[in-house]
Amino acid sequence: MARSVLVTGGNRGIGLAVARRLAAGGDRVAVTFRSGRPPAGLFGVRCDVTDGEQVDRAFKEVEAEQGAVEVLVANAGIARDRLLATMSETDFGAVLDTNLVGTFRVARRAVRPMMRARRGRIVLISSVSALLGTAGQANYAASKAGLIGFGRSLARELAPRDITVNVIAAGLVDTDMTSSLTEARIEAITASVPLGRMGTAEEIAAAVDFLAGPGAGYITGAVMAVDGGLGMGH
């Protein structure tokens, strides 16, 4: 049976790969996007997750188009990398407001209909940076680490209503966000990856597809690393 799915930040990169994967499996998939145009073949709603009114409006549009959201993939995020000594409070706050508080906003809006239906799937896209720490990413790593505590707390709250909440800790993935890295920087990072390469957005999407599917009905509060082994042991 087709489910109503919402993927935030679903117009490119990991979010788009997730949206296409779930749509290919027969779900009705909507994506939020902050700028540009919605991807072809998917229902797009413009939404900045730092604005609670926009979040509520986006959900109303999705609900009118395809029904209450049954699967939420919280993927929208930004990075503003800089060493702490030169990082502004604005850049620190903006990353947390988008990546962590933005996820709070969309999850809070999604859970009440899920609770009434007594079913649902929530998948949060975190990062291996949350486990390892990364120089120059104090804001990003903090926001992604916060998703783990947030997700596990939600998992305990919502389990009695048969709603699962899980977290993907993504490694270095070949997307627009990593395209600004120099070749030397990519080589330095992949040298630490046991599998010796960057991941693909499609590999993250496959993990999300599993956690959102029937085979993961007894998995909640989990942090699944999809990182080529980079965060092994953390």
From TrEMBL:
Its domain of life reads Bacteria
Q: Which GO terms describe its molecular function?
A: oxidoreductase activity
The record's keywords, sorted A to Z, are:
Oxidoreductase
InterPro entries, sorted: KR_dom, NAD(P)-bd_dom_sf, Sc_DH/Rdtase_CS, SDR, SDR_fam
Membrane-spanning ranges? none
Give one GO biological process term: monocarboxylic acid metabolic process
Q: Which PROSITE patterns match?
A: ADH_SHORT
Pfam families under this entry?
A: adh_short_C2
- The segment(s) forming the Ketoreductase domain are 3-176
The answer to whether keyword Secreted applies is: no
Family of this protein: Belongs to the short-chain dehydrogenases/reductases (SDR) family.
Could you identify this protein by its name? Answer: Beta-ketoacyl-ACP reductase
